[in-house]
Design a protein that fits this description.
The chain is mainly beta. It is built from one helix and nine strands. A hairpin with a 2-residue loop joins β8 and β9. The N and C termini lie far apart (47 Å).
Length: 144
């Protein structure tokens, strides 16, 4: 009896760990560029990141990276390329407030830079490509 319970437990754990239901495994449109940024908050160009609700845009990543300040110690970083089509000359998203919009005429994709999720179809569209962003002293380290 113990062997049957042990066997069922192993099968249950194996099935539970399956990734086949996770659509967000890997975005086929995007690559993983090497990102390694150190943003010094003592420099004037990064001063907005000292205050929640502000963001800055850097030149790294696929089409640039937006770094958003959630709180004094919490930051988010997302690539500015539209994650739902192959990068092209028009796929660098434009920011208006906390909404990133793809200017390509073939779609109307919009995303929240506060979560990376699509504004109207979060369950069917890929989210913005995210990067690790953490504060270390007076620096914000953005990497992948």
């Amino acid at each position: 009896m113990k062997n049957k319970i042990f066997f069922l437990l192993i099968v249950f754990i194996t099935v539970s760990c399956s990734k086949k239901d996770n659509k967000q495994e890997r975005n086929p449109f995007l690559t993983d560029p090497v990102v390694s940024l150190s943003l010094n908050l003592n420099l004037p160009e990064y001063n907005p990141l000292k205050f929640p609700g502000n963001y800055i845009v850097t030149g790294q990543g696929i089409k640039g990276i937006v770094v958003y300040c959630v709180s004094e110690n919490q930051y988010l970083a997302f690539d500015l390329t539209d994650p739902n089509h192959v990068p092209s000359s028009c796929s660098r998203m434009e920011l208006e407030g906390v909404i990133a919009t793809c200017p390509c005429t073939t779609d109307d994709n919009k995303y929240y830079i506060t979560s990376g999720q699509h504004t109207s179809e979060p369950d069917t569209k890929y989210p913005m490509q995210s990067y690790r962003a953490e504060r270390s002293g007076n620096n914000i380290i953005v990497s992948n």
